[in-house]
Specification:
This protein has 258 residues and is α+β, with helices and mostly antiparallel strands. The chain contains seven helices and nine strands; from the N terminus they run H-E-E-E-H-E-E-H-H-E-E-E-E-H-H-H. The protein has two domains: 3-108, Phosphorylase Kinase, domain 1 (2-Layer Sandwich); 119-253, Aminoglycoside phosphotransferase (APH), C-terminal lobe (Aminoglycoside 3'-phosphotransferase, Chain: A, domain 2, Alpha-Beta Complex), CATH 3.90.1200. A hairpin with a 2-residue loop joins strand 7 and strand 8. Helix 2 (69-82) packs across helix 4 (140-148). The chain is globular. The chain starts with a helix and ends with a helix.
């Protein structure tokens, strides 16, 4: 890591955490294609050593929800603060700040364990609980930011043959293995930048198909777990899954011919 990166990470951590002195011992870029910079950090403060995750929103980041750096970071921070009490586990927010058209968020680093066969099933129940949360259960500020956010589905534009969505609920927007951590307590949902009001079947389709090679038996268990808490729009979900299958088939064909 470059010295300039270390300095920048340290400056953002200092601002977000309100500490006068922070020593950055180690950082690892875990952005993984995210539109933001995400750093896994080992630090030392006056209270002792610690492990945190820093996410920075610079001007010009991939702002798919259309809120800009400050409001995206604020929405993310509020989601981390409010959703656990509503049955949706998230990392703990440790602080956030915005300045000069940029923003940053610091959160607890989740000690993730390997996925098991039942992880996706547990994640389906958590997803159903998210979709059951009513906008009125959120703080006024978070509800406003969610309502202003463009749902991730809108990136596709109009698609022929798409059945109409029957309802709109809270929508994570990017709900698959990259953003679902296994912990000793169950699953913990990460990355709330795309939280919006949208089709719940978008999220369920992501859970079922955004990871390649999910078997049909596992998919049936996931759908059953979700249905144990709320209904499934079968036509809409089938369309979502068919789109994913077409995507994977096209990608495999391109890789084979490339």
């Amino acid at each position: 890591m470059r010295d300039t990166d270390v300095t920048l990470v340290g400056e953002w951590l200092t601002k977000c955490l309100g500490r006068s002195t922070i020593t950055v011992l180690r950082t690892l870029d875990i952005s993984r294609g995210s539109g933001c910079q995400v750093w896994d950090c080992e630090t030392v403060t006056a209270e002792g050593p610690g492990s945190v995750v820093l996410k920075t929103y610079t001007a010009g980041f991939d702002d798919y929800s259309g809120l800009g750096p400050a409001d995206t970071a604020r929405k993310h921070a509020l989601a981390l603060a409010e959703l656990p009490a509503l049955g949706v586990p998230t990392p703990r927010c440790l602080g956030w700040v915005h300045a000069g058209g940029e923003a940053a968020l610091v959160m607890q680093r989740v000690m993730a364990k390997p996925w098991s066969r039942q992880t996706r099933v547990h994640a389906a129940r958590v997803l159903a609980r998210l979709h059951l949360v009513q906008l009125a259960e959120l703080s006024d500020e978070l509800a406003t930011l969610v309502s202003r956010s463009t749902p991730n589905r809108e990136r596709l534009g109009e698609v022929r043959g798409e059945p109409p969505a029957r309802e709109h609920t809270l929508q994570h927007g990017d709900y698959f293995s990259v953003n679902i951590a296994v912990t000793a307590e169950g699953v913990c949902v990460l990355d709330w930048d795309l939280l919006a009001l949208g089709d719940p079947m978008w999220d369920l389709g992501f859970l079922l198909e955004a990871d390649p090679n999910v078997g049909e038996r596992e998919a049936e268990e996931v759908i059953h777990a979700y249905q144990s808490l709320r209904p499934v729009d079968e036509a809409r979900l089938r369309w979502q899954r068919d789109c994913w299958k077409a995507y994977w088939a096209a990608r495999d064909s391109w890789q084979h011919t490339g």
